Amino acid sequence: MLVGCIYAQDNADTITAVYIVTLKQAPTSHYYSELRVKHGHHIKRNGSQRSRLDTARNTSRTGGHHGSYIDRLHDSLLRKALRGEKYLKLYSYRYLINGFAVLVTPQQADKLSRRREVSNVVLDFSVRTATTHTPQFLGLPQGAWAQEGGFETAGEGVVIGFIDTGIDPTHPSFSDGTPEKPYPVPEHFSGICEVTRDFPSGSCNRKLIGARHFAASAITRGIFNATQDYASPYDADGHGTHTAAIAAGNHGIAVVVAGHHFGNASGMAPRSHIAVYKALYKSFGGFAADVVAAIDQDGVDIISLSITPNRRPPGIATFFNPIDMALLSAVKAGIFVVQAAGNTGPSPKSISSFSPWIFTVGAAAHDRIYTGTDTDVMYTLVSAIHALNDTTAANDMYVSECQDASNFNQDVVQGNLLICSYSIRFVLGLSTIKQAIETAKNLSAAGVVFYMDPYVIGFQLNPIPMRIPGIIIPSPDDSKVLLQYYNSSLGRDGTTKKIVKFGGVASISGGIKANFSRAAPKVMYYSARGPDPEDSSLDDADILKPNIVAPGNYIWSAWSCRGTDSVEFEGESFAMMSGTSMAAPHVAGLAALIKQKFPFFTPSAIGSALSTTASLNDRNGGPIMAQRAYANPDLNQSPATPFDMGSGFVNATAALDPGLIFDSSYDDYMSFLCGINGSYPVVLNYTGQSCGVSTMNATDLNLPSITISKLNQSAVVQRTVTNIGSNETYSVGWSAPYGASVKVTPTHFSIASGRKQVLSVLFNATMNSTVASFGRIGLFGTQGHIINIPLSVIVKVSYNNTGG
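User: That's the sequence. What structure does it adopt?
Assistant: Structure tokens below.
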């Protein structure tokens, strides 16, 4: 930092910035991946056998020989390229990509880009962050957990890495207190546990087995506040603690908030292990250079990313950005990558996770709802603006928000329900529910009712536990009805017009005990939607996004005791949050169950198992619905399409017995990238590999879906399935997208265990249309397996109208 600060002062006219530099020489993971293939090694997760690959990986990280060698190469390159000039290297990337992050001027970045050893130089960019009942809603206790031997062993031996805001290691969700049963750290994990004043020795254990923080890029910008953000893996926000516990928190942890008990919490894979890589911070979000450093760690089986870029990546394709390309290297190393879709829905092309090697998860509601806290009798309603203790308070335009008890006459409020306004200031954090509740308590109110300001449109308000009876009317229209009733019930003096009687009465019911709706799941309005934009000009990619939807609305999970992301839950051990950030770790945990059962599965095989078995219907048996507006979302919904929900709603139990899988390799993804027009130099820059003669279109990737952005008269698409079950015979059925015809061959096939079958799908456009339409292929096995393949066709051209 001293070097960076001196540099900025001595060269006031020169702007420095962080650049991510990748080199042509392959990273260590590529070497070890080739070693594994060459020697046919397989890593056993039960610890009974340790391969040469594991030994090499541990040596590279803990022994540091190879890592320090790469560091020296990076330092030597910088000295040669920037002779005598000042710079600051922030990170050396060693394992998944070979490169470094460095603080330099644009002129120095240009010098680095001209070195023959250098593949690519990219300017750093910013990123942002995007349960008690969901295990039951997903059927885990009697389904997936039972298949794995119960919650006591669910996810055992699998390591999930979380790139987020850190973790509170003192939370009981991350304790390893199970002395009656061995709980060894998996041998293939070789990460470290950082020790600081905020994260002391002993913070890690057999559950939380790795923790680091990455903030160098933020520090060089002068925006890192060590007091507020904590220069350690400790979670000062709450978001990271929440997501880690959703995926892998311990089973049976009591959820007590505001003195109320809301059941017992469990992660999806409660026996799996956690590694935390903090690269996001409350005050500013995060930066790609720090996220890439977090990704570039060895030993995890799954990466969960509840983050998205702040802008669509520029260039010839959205896939070519430092984060996605680092994640491609992670996939090559056998790591399954889960990412939140983003909270920018419901408009089309709002998706913030782009690449086919990343499993993108949207947010859906589950069936539990809360409506208010309990009162048993009727109480008089008194508006805050009619309970002021003098006329001066009336000059405060925000007095109706009930933030200061001294503004009100306790004699008027006492024993009544106080009506307060919920304005945009609550959304911005300038006013809080907690403070309004404190005001009501100090005035001895029987409870509090919040009405929604008409200017608060499209804001999702999570249910908030209150220490006195209270309710928030979430709709401006419903709030208007309440206020009309209240005002019409007032008794006024005929001469002075002063209020002489408060005639409106109400009771608040429900709230502590959950209600359950059968109209679930449904896709939430904020969940980002497809189609997947291929480039910054919003051309559509032939790739389905999102891949799937999972519970993301009203999710209880662990909370950092110093977490400040939600002021309403400050000081609590649990919080209720909503967003695709909550959906992604659900899938990460379920992927751990699949990895436990099928340790040989590739990342794409795990994604295939989750996708082809996803549910298409809600609890009523009707189609899953998707909300389509910010305002009154439940009144603006229609059946979800693949661009809303991908393959459907995750089915944890069925994913453990998929029957057939669609597999894709790193080489397939490389061929796809090389098939993008003008991509050859970019692929070389990012991967250090030259494109060969063999390329493929996105439609040729062996994905468990088919998306055609432009069907020009006809197209033939092939898919290859692999039978991971017993011998089985399948029949094939389909429904064609509107404006197209579909024919699949063969229509019946028998497939032995371990064998492959090629399916050919012929599409013909039957009309000209630019409106997306959807269909589905179903494979129905005699052993009960059902494989669903969503079809999406956007532009359809039935004839060529050129040439007269």
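The chain has 22 helices and 39 strands.
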